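Backbone-to-sequence.
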């Protein structure tokens, strides 16, 4: 599902998840036999670009995107972006089965009557979830997920892409794009089509009920990675990526600076993704197992325990509500967690314990060709869940619509 500008697929496409704190980029190519990951990258969103969760200065975002594209030598122009679910109205309605032309008219009629009046022009899109027989009267019914957002939200994002010399192809909402990438993962293939997808964005978290392989219900919470990092007193840490961007911006040789005397007892910057405390340092990987009570990690998790508890409570409430819609109930037995979250394995284990459900880390690059020259495999291995939405956008751009 998307709010389309152009509908044709391309051989190569860019997915740009433009958040209030981070801009994530994924470039994918469709070959004759496979999907190939060409690039993955990140840059900090300029603080003056957003007011709250709304993009108010597209030109500043365009400048950041241009820097990121230049650092990766990316020439692909077709791009897809996303709107967070907290800026979107998502509802499921039931209608009698009818021809597609008549169905769209019925959806618009039913939706406009129920949408809140904001005085702003809205963009509407929909997706047919399922066609089923109503057991009460044996008539054929259609379950439809409808999406609506204010046009100004989509226009601001499209302007940022255009000013960065890109060609906007479509705009998704974060949970739909995120699910598109996770749907290809081994986790989804191994554990079934009924799950809850938890997507932690910068300023909000999307809770998405997936039933029989389709988005059934979307809810957005006013909490995100920024809340957790504020509590921890940290910023998103991708120092290695920033170093590469800085090198790309250097145009003249600098005179060598005098070496400083080494300082004693220097404390390394704390990486909340590392699965270790500041005293332990080092890098960790998605595939690495860490003790839940590693020194430093346990104290850090303690500081955000109330946030994890609230997330777990709201996830359980969403699961109960989502499973109660209609007679065909989903049997949700696991969750996939993606987006930007601290303490990786520790965070997942804590959420799993509070939910009483299996929780798996997002794996958006499953079953892709990862052999492109210059591909930052370290970034992929360490932070893959953070790029699920951007990956899902790029997948749509190369023809993976569902």
């Amino acid at each position: 599902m998307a709010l389309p500008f152009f509908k044709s697929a391309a051989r190569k496409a860019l997915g740009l998840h433009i958040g209030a704190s981070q801009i994530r980029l994924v470039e994918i190519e469709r070959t004759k036999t496979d999907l190939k990951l060409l690039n993955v990258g990140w840059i900090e969103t300029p603080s003056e670009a957003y007011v709250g969760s709304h993009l108010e200065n597209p030109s500043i975002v365009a400048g950041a995107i241009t820097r990121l594209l230049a650092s990766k030598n990316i020439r692909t122009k077709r791009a897809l972006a996303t709107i967070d679910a907290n800026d979107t109205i998502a509802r499921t309605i039931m209608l009698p089965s009818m021809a597609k032309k008549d169905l769209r008219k019925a959806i618009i009629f039913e939706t406009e009557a129920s949408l809140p009046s904001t005085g702003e022009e809205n963009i509407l899109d929909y997706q047919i979830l399922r066609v089923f027989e109503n057991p009460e009267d044996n008539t054929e019914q259609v379950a439809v997920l409808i999406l609506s957002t204010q046009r100004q939200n989509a226009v601001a994002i499209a302007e940022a892409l255009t000013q960065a010399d890109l060609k906007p192809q479509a705009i998704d909402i974060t949970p739909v794009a995120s699910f598109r990438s996770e749907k290809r993962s081994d986790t989804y293939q191994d554990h079934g089509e009924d799950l809850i997808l938890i997507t932690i964005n910068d300023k909000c978290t999307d809770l998405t009920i997936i039933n029989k392989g389709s988005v059934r219900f979307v809810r957005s919470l006013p909490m995100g990675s920024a809340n957790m990092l504020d509590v921890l007193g940290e910023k998103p840490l991708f120092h290695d990526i920033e170093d590469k961007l800085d090198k790309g911006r250097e145009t003249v040789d600098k005179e060598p600076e005098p070496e400083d005397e080494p300082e004693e007892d220097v404390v390394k910057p704390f990486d909340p993704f590392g699965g270790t405390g500041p005293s332990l340092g080092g890098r960790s990987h998605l595939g690495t197992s860490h003790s839940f009570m590693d020194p430093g990690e346990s104290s850090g998790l303690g500081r955000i325990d109330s946030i994890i508890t609230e997330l777990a409570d709201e996830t359980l409430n969403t699961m109960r509500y989502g499973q109660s819609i209609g007679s065909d109930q989903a049997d949700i037995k696991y969750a996939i967690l993606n987006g930007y979250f601290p303490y990786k394995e520790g965070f997942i284990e804590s959420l799993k314990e509070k939910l009483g459900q299996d929780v798996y880390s997002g794996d958006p690059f499953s079953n892709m060709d990862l052999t492109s020259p210059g591909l930052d495999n370290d970034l992929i291995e360490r932070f893959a869940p953070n790029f699920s939405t951007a990956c899902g956008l790029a997948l749509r751009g190369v023809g993976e619509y569902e």
